[in-house]
From TrEMBL:
Superkingdom: Bacteria
Binding locations of Na(+): 75, 78
Location(s) in or outside the cell: Cell membrane
One biological process term in Gene Ontology: cellular detoxification of fluoride
Gene Ontology annotations for the cellular component aspect, listed alphabetically: plasma membrane
Regulation of catalytic or functional activity: Na(+) is not transported, but it plays an essential structural role and its presence is essential for fluoride channel function.
Lineage, opening ranks: Bacteria, Bacillati, Actinomycetota, Actinomycetes, Micrococcales
Topology in the lipid bilayer: Multi-pass membrane protein
InterPro entries: FluC
Protein name (record): Fluoride-specific ion channel FluC
Keyword Nucleotidyltransferase: no
Cross-referenced Pfam families: CRCB
Gene designation: fluC
Record-level Gene Ontology MF annotations: fluoride channel activity; metal ion binding
Family from the record: Belongs to the fluoride channel Fluc/FEX (TC 1.A.43) family.
Length: 125
């Protein structure tokens, strides 16, 4: 049953990513992949909040819910592979410095968002 829930929530996360990215692309013109950046930062924050809540208040969330929301929803929503491809695309089309800045910014801001989510999840749950 858990596997089915992870698959369903993973699909919901992927569809949510597609819709959000399309909307961001429609509004923000240019070569910088703003949608993927926002998606990965937001997903890192949400997964951090779930992790913080589960770690500090284990009874708040069942292991099945943690797996379903974390692995399924957040895993389907975030996208390391797209961020990697967009890093290479920026590297090749706009220069090595732009590609490198995007890669570093994505990793750093996503990590900071995860830490913030963990802190918030530990306090609120």
């Amino acid at each position: 049953m858990t596997t089915l829930l992870i698959a369903l929530f993973g699909g919901a996360g992927a569809v949510s990513r597609f819709v959000l990215d399309a909307e961001v692309r429609r509004r923000a013109r240019g070569s910088f992949p703003v949608g993927t950046f926002i998606i990965n930062v937001l997903g890192s924050f949400v997964l951090g909040a779930l992790t913080g809540a589960f770690t500090h208040h284990a009874g708040w969330l069942s292991p099945t819910a943690k797996d379903t929301l974390g692995t399924g929803l957040c895993g389907g929503f975030t996208t390391f592979s797209t961020a990697s491809v967009e890093t290479v695309r920026l590297w090749l089309t706009t220069g090595k410095a732009v590609g490198a800045r995007y890669a570093v910014a994505t990793a750093l801001v996503s990590l900071l968002a995860a830490f913030a989510g963990i802190a918030l999840g530990g306090v609120l749950a």
